[in-house]
Write a structure and sequence with these properties.
This protein is an alpha+beta fold. Helix content is about 25%, strand content about 35%. The chain has a three-stranded antiparallel beta sheet with strand order 1-5-3. Strands 4-2-6 form a three-stranded antiparallel beta sheet. The termini are far apart.
Amino acid sequence: VSGVNIARLSALAAGGRTLDNFKIARRKGVLRFFPSQVGKLKSIIGFDAANRISGVESAPFATIGETYGPPTDDGSRLGFILSVGNSLQEALAKANNAESKITFSFE
């Protein structure tokens, strides 16, 4: 969201390197997760379409053919959407659009 690669900067600083000046992007982001559902996962559709939306990155964590139970903790997730916009409203609209394209089907 900020455009700053914090892992790279941390590694350079730990190695005693001088850090170049960097610019922080003033954008807003939305991170959304798909909670686990009960059943055997039959199909996942829509992530390709969601990722074609400018400012959206999304991916499934779940595997087709695996059996899932109800959400029990913070790790009980099927996938994620990360959207970025110049305003919170723009980022939310992108996340909503992406979410509308993604379907997990269970049997």
